[in-house]
Amino acid sequence: QVQLVESGGGSVQAGGSLRLSCAASTVTARYFMAWFRQSAGTRREAVATIDRDGRTIYTAPVKGRFTISKDNSKNTLYLQMDSLKLEDTAMYYCAAGMYVADAEAEVEYNYWGQGTQVTVSS
After folding, report:
1. DSSP E strand boundaries for the chain
2. 82 falls in which pLDDT band (50, 70, 90)?
């Protein structure tokens, strides 16, 4: 069983930055990993993904502002979030999957963290 534990969420003013971390109980090099988010009344959506080779995908709302990375020596996934906007307010989840065909599809990921809240205010 893979365990994922997110940290780094909090409250920040619009335009500010936060860095989320996700500590994994497994070898991150073996997995596709991703950050998803869910705000009140909406479906969980992909934010950024990274495959075993370090190739990344960003969804349109965060492209150019967020950076996903991982440190396989520490089995930790990161999400650097810059130029935060009010609409970035959400619960952010870390996810891992062994076999991922559609990197942005929630169902492709087998393991999930408990989430960390990010709140952006004006």
Report:
1. 4-7, 10-13, 18-24, 32-38, 45-50, 56-58, 66-71, 76-81, 90-97, 111-112, 116-121
2. very high
